Amino acid sequence: MLTEVHVPEDVPAAVSLVAAGATIIGGGTSLMPRLNDYASPPTELVSLRRAGLTGVHVGGDTVTIGAMTTLAQIEHDPRLAFLNPVVRSIASVPVRTLATVGGNLFARQPHGDLAVALVALGARAVLAGEGASELPLTRPGLVTAITVRIPEEGTFKYLKAARRRWNSASLVTVAATIHEASGEVTIALGGVSDRVVRAHAAEAVLRGRPLTEETVEAAARAELAHLTPADDAYASAWYRKRVFPVHLRRALLGR
Known about the structure:
Strand content: 15-25%
Shape: globular
Strand order of the largest sheet: 4-5-8-6-7
Order of helices and strands: EHEHEEEHHHHHEEEEEEEHHH
């Protein structure tokens, strides 16, 4: 039950309200359906829309994105073209005009595809009063911004498999940053656990080796044992594990 909505003018005021027990709301695309559809305890919300957390700043090869920046703003910012395939795979146009970068970090799987991409890109979340933290976040907090380096051309790969092309949750989401010259590999997955996960087993197989059908197949086999997908309205756990090797190959090799 929603009892009150606070709209503080700055971050310190928001932090104080959260410390008193209120719940943070960004765009509300994940939180409000839960409050509206299910019985819930009395809940006070803290809206961050006036807290000065919107905007994109580019300095050199590093981008800082305010936590209240919407997915639509990212989609239409030419400086963030490397994220276009990601945000355009999420929900619908009306939802993207509301959904925020910060909120996506806490979206329940099989949602939260931007968070999958940000993990693969090595992004960090700036938390109020706590400095920067690696993604995925393992604890709640008031995220004020995301920092991420613009990837070198051709190093970032992304694929989302879904029942429908538009406005559908993930069956399997794969995001990866691969530097073939140095052999460094970072892979993040969505839809295969209750949270965004790093594919450490697959990374270990691919690190320092060329991307081929054989190496990617071996990486998929290594990672399968660590996947813990759930049955839901979109797919069964069995199906997600069954198609994971296919989508890993398509994401990394493009075929």
